[in-house]
Design brief:
Shape: elongated
Number of helices: 11
Oligomer: single chain
Order of helices and strands: EHEHEHEHEHHEHHEHHH
Strand order of the largest sheet: 3-2-1-4-6-5-7
């Protein structure tokens, strides 16, 4: 018996592309949920009037809540109907629905709990990506490695994803960031439950569609949210849920680095004010803790990189 695969398609300003996207979703999908996030173009109404695919159900948000909230609405509807795997595809035509079997295969084989697209595998296709998106995506992906703990992933803002229902049920949908940060925020929450995430190679595709996401406008906001999630993840993983040698390395490294920088800064400022150079012993007393602290923090990062989840959780969870 084939797996119950559902597809979630959030819709906002995609009237020119949504019908084409739906028409290319293959027979491996049992159910399709189109979520009209108060689209001013009436994308959901267009689907209801012109799409004859019996698998399609249209859900409406009375007010715009953001793409993340739309996806969570689709997740909830898919789980309610008994879906085993839930795929998220954007309605703007940038994602090829023909790739859905590649996204669900690692999940159905018990190799992953969650899969996501990565447009950076094939260098010949990266040139299609606008330069500002390329640079911004690289910066955001590095910040996401720190905040989510998935050091093995790239292109973390890629919205072409698939998730096993058992993993989805362990996510608090109301806590996931409702707007553009939701892909990375979802990865952060998947790490807290030790879900295995795998990248799926895909081509970059940019045509006549327009994106309402401006990387330059969200870098500051995303940086603040990444720092928040990094702090939460480290506390959950290394101090609340468990304590390891890495916990000690992080604590002592921060203490040593902080002492070295503060002590050295005070004496450096004093030397500037008095014109008297600090003695060698004072310089060493500042330098040694600083170098030791940096070394211990690098050791913590190395441990964190090696601590990426390896065993899919849905394999062991009850139905």
């Amino acid at each position: 018996m084939p797996a119950f695969v559902a597809v979630v398609v959030p819709c906002y300003l995609v009237k020119d592309h949504i019908l084409g996207v739906l028409s290319r979703i293959g027979p491996e999908v049992i159910r399709i949920f189109v979520i009209d996030d108060a689209c001013p173009e009436g994308s959901g109404r267009l689907v209801q009037e012109q799409c004859t695919d019996p698998r399609v159900a249209v859900l409406h948000h009375a007010v715009n809540q953001g793409v993340g909230a739309a996806v969570m609405t689709g997740y909830a509807a898919a789980l309610k109907e008994g879906a085993e795997v839930i795929v998220k595809v954007d309605g703007d035509g940038q994602m090829d629905p023909a790739l859905i079997p590649h996204f669900i295969a690692p999940i159905l084989k018990g190799q992953a709990d969650y899969t996501k697209g990565n447009r950076f595998y094939d260098l010949t296709h990266i040139s299609q990506m606008p330069s500002i998106r390329l640079i911004g995506n690289a910066a955001l992906s590095f910040m996401a490695k720190l905040s989510t703990g998935y050091w093995n992933l790239f292109d973390t803002n890629n919205g072409f994803t698939a998730i096993h229902a058992k993993a989805a049920r362990r996510i608090a949908f109301d806590k996931v960031s409702p707007r553009y940060f939701f892909e990375t925020d979802l990865l952060f929450r998947l790490n807290t439950i030790r879900a295995v995430v795998v990248d799926i190679a895909m081509d970059a595709s940019y045509g006549s569609e327009t994106s309402s996401l401006r990387v330059t406008h969200v870098l500051g906001e995303f940086l603040a949210k990444h720092l928040r999630n990094f702090g939460k993840r480290v506390f959950y993983s290394y101090f609340l849920r468990d304590m390891t040698a890495a916990s000690l390395e992080l604590f002592l490294g921060l203490c040593a680095l902080g002492f070295g920088l503060v002590f050295g800064g005070i004496h450096w400022a004093d030397g500037l004010a008095t014109g008297v150079a600090a003695p060698l012993g004072t310089i060493m007393l500042a330098a040694l803790p600083t170098m030791l602290g940096l070394q211990m923090l690098l050791a913590f990062v190395a441990y964190d990189v090696a601590n990426v989840p390896r065993r899919p959780i849905h394999v062991d969870l009850p139905d």
